[in-house]
Structures are given as C-alpha cells and as structure tokens.
C-alpha cells in the first residue's frame, strides 16, 4: 500500500466566478469601447459632411449675393444711363433762350412771366406800350430760327395805376400797357447752334 503524503499546503481551488466575471467585464468594456468608437467615428463623419455642406452653401450664397450685387449694379448703371439720356434730351437751357428772346424785344418790352412745360411748350407774358409792339414781337419770334412755332394767345390792355379812369382828370390819364401772352415751341438744336456762333 501506498501512502501519499503531501506536505505542501493545499491549493485553494481557483475561483471560477471571479475569473468569469473579469472576462465578462473586460468583454463588456471592449464592446462598449468599440460601440463608443463607432459612434464617435459616425459623429465625426457626420460633422465633416455637415461642414462640407455648410461650405458649399456658403459658397452658393456668396455666388448668389455676387449675382444680386451685379444685377443691382447693372440696374443702377441702366438707371444712370436713362437719367443721362434724359438730361441730354429733356432740359432746355433757359439762359440762352431768354437771352435770345429778350434780344428780339422792342425797347419798351418787358417779360413779365415765363414758364416751360415738359412737352417743350414755352409760355411767356410780355408787357408792351402799344399793341403794334406786340404784333412786331410776334413777327420777330416767328422769323427766329430757334423758335419752331409761335402763337399769340391773348392780348389785353392793363392800367398801370390802380385808380379808376373816372377818378382821374383828363391831364392825369395814363396810357394803358398791353400784356401779350405767347405760346411757342423751341427748336433746341437751332438754339444750341445759335449759341455756338460768335
């Protein structure tokens, strides 16, 4: 018979539960780390994608804003061109016109009222000493090259003094003045050519 004597201390049995729980916790930690890594990777991919979209949107917005600015500048240029063209076509230089009209007046003729309409019609009221001077001025205007056409619209006698004729004696009677109203159209090109002549 064989007697087995073991003097070594007995090994305690390994705790399988501890080992198993350690393996499970480690596996779960690895799975959690893998899931966390995948989620972070997806989030970073999404962020990169959104940043690219944002850059593209900003680039498109900048292009559209540039187009809009170009359209506005083109529109402003067109409006400016229209204004310049209007300035060339519309206005009549009044100083040369008045200078030439007053040169045609008789010695005792005075321009009392002057108006210019958009359609190019000039209306002028002139005071004369006699009705013959009004007719003479009409003839001179119609002969002038810078006047396209002229009409005498009205001719009326007005007293310069406010007192009535009955209150004045025969020595104090004042000769009435004549107020003529003319309507004319100016030939702008002929007026400009006349101004260029010395």
UniProtKB/TrEMBL annotation:
Q: Out of the domains of life, which is the source?
A: Bacteria
- State which residue ranges cross the membrane: 16-40
Q: Does this UniProt record's set of keywords contain Transmembrane?
A: yes
Q: Which UniProt keywords apply?
A: Coiled coil, Membrane, Transmembrane, Transmembrane helix
Q: Which residues form a coiled coil?
A: 40-67
Annotated protein name in UniProt: Type IV pilus assembly protein PilN
């Amino acid at each position: 018979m064989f007697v087995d004597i073991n003097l070594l201390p007995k090994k305690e049995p390994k705790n399988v539960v501890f080992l198993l729980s350690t393996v499970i916790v480690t596996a779960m930690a690895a799975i959690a780390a893998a899931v966390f890594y995948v989620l972070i990777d997806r989030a970073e991919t999404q962020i990169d994608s959104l940043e690219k979209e944002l850059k593209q949107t900003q680039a498109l917005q900048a292009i559209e804003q540039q187009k809009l600015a170009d359209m506005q500048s083109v529109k402003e240029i067109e409006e400016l061109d229209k204004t310049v063209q209007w300035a060339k076509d519309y206005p009549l230089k009044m100083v040369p016109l008045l200078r030439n009209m007053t040169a045609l007046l008789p010695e005792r003729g005075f321009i009392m009222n002057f108006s210019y309409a958009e359609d190019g019609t000039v209306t002028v009221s002139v005071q004369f000493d006699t009705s013959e001077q009004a007719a003479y001025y009409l003839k001179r205007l119609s002969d002038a090259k810078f006047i396209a056409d002229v009409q005498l619209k009205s001719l009326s006698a007005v007293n310069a003094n406010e007192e009535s004729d009955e209150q004045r004696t025969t020595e104090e009677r004042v000769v009435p003045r004549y107020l003529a109203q003319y309507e004319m159209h100016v030939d702008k090109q002929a007026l400009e050519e006349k101004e260029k002549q010395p």
